[in-house]
């Protein structure tokens, strides 16, 4: 991990951009974080739209988390931002748009091609980033995950024992293979669902929630479209992390 820039936000939160190999990322830490007072960490995994585009939303989460006593970090997902495109994903997006424009159901083949290669690439990168972040003296764990591609969070919750709790956003297509993986998830979960999300299969999201094997899992469903998550729902997610990571 190599830090490339840093700035203070509001004189309180330290924001540092970094690269991990060829993967860009950002780390936010409260001003009082130190080797003698290491912070729990929340991984912020945005949709693959690019960190620059998602920055306002990410930094808002980071500021709130810092006020609650957490460090946060994000990395650019495969195919996102300035990273090389994924040809298979580009083809899947084109097929998806054609199906939606024609009013057709989105096939399992399109969903698999769109999501599974992203999960297969992103999860090892997140684990590599976590290795590097936990070597920093001011980061001590435990670790939470908050993510917008629910299949990435599902896979990470299965394979990464250092993640103690997760907030998952049910706003993306779910491959059938992820339902079997969901049964292996045992960590506490807080799942956010926008009831009227125009791009989401609500029933698939409900079925995935039912499949999670966690003894503690909460579904927080709100009326509204994809980007209409109310502030109080975000506050509830923050309280979830305070319960499980402090």
Number of domains: 1
N- to C-terminal distance: 26 Å
- SSE order, one letter for each helix or strand: EEEEHEHHEHEHEHEH
Please state the average pLDDT score: 92
Description:
- It contains 7 helices and 9 strands; from the N terminus they run E-E-E-E-H-E-H-H-E-H-E-H-E-H-E-H.
- The mean pLDDT is 92.
- Helices cover 41% and strands 26% of the residues.
- The chain has one domain: Alpha/Beta hydrolase fold, catalytic domain (Rossmann fold, 3-Layer(aba) Sandwich).
- The protein is of the alpha/beta class and 246 residues long.
- The chain has a 9-stranded mixed beta sheet, with helices on both faces.
- 41% of the residues are buried.
List keywords for this structure.
globular; 246 residues; nine-stranded mixed β-sheet; alpha/beta; single chain; 7 helices
Architecture blueprint of SSEs:
Layout: E1 2-9, E2 13-20, E3 23-30, E4 39-45, H1 51-67, E5 71-75, H2 87-101, H3 108-134, E6 139-147, H4 150-159, E7 163-169, H5 177-182, E8 189-194, H6 202-211, E9 217-222, H7 231-245
Parallel strand pairs: 4-5, 4-6, 6-7, 7-8, 8-9
Antiparallel strand pairs: 1-2, 2-3, 3-5
Helix pairs in contact: 2-3, 3-4
